[in-house]
Amino acid sequence: MQSFYQLSKQIYDMENPREVRRAIIFCVRAWLHRGKLQELDAFFRKDTMLSKLADIYPFVYEQPTRAFFYNKSTFDERVRIVEKHMQFLRGKLREDVLLPLYQRESLPLWTGPECMGVELTAALFFDYGQRKEGLMSVILRLGEASLYQIIFWIAPAVDGTPAMWIGAMQGPNMEDARDVVKQATKACHSYRTKNLVLYIAQAVARSLGLGRIYAVTNEGYYANNHVRVDRKLKTDFSEFWREAGGTDTEDRRFMELPLIEKRKTMEEVPTRKRAVYRRRFAMLDDIDREVMERIGEILQ
């Protein structure tokens, strides 16, 4: 294993004083937990593909040392998350797909309608800035701009079932965001964009063979480790998950979400809205089919 100092130089910008401070803290924490990090390194080095992954994404050593993923997560839990997530993807995805995903390359999942002169698209994607909340994301884009992201990791549920764990949902960070979301919603037959990105994430979970989906509540959001949550959260996670069919779990930090969104029957839809709902449901059916095809193409 490399020295913690050498690792810190790969992880942090040593020209930035703030990053230098983080590098020092990383080295101290890593030394205090050196035995567990050496075991984590052994996990990656036992397999050629995992070893390559650790080389291109050295943050696997940093994430356990910081208060990431969810509120009051422990060092051991974070190590387990990193191992289980990477182990699952190692067993599922082709090497020529998995490694580029951790080099900021997008994997297209869906091409949607045109909105404001550009296409709505969805992809699997991971940016290093997302590592506080997870290890992968489903991103909904309008052209090149990010609209919504579901950031998650994959690890077993309490009963051992492989599960998607959502660490955050991030909305648009752009000028006129409200108007852009309004236009995108209209293009998607009055289907809200945050519901759309969750729908796509559910399709990804099913296509990967995951049996459950959990999502952090307001109480479970990782930033609760640091400051008041109302200064961090732009979205009320708990309320949105509940609207999406989420149910409480024994751990108040997480809710369980359905793998499949429940749809209204046409009898439940007012007559004047049925044409819009038919177009919406057709779009959602296309998403299910396209995501299944795209994921199927990248499986081993």
Automatic annotation (TrEMBL):
Which GO BP annotation is one of this protein's? DNA damage response
State a single Pfam family of this protein.
DUF535
Kindly give the InterPro entries that the UniProt entry links to this protein.
Answer: DUF535
State the name under which the record lists this protein. DUF535 domain-containing protein
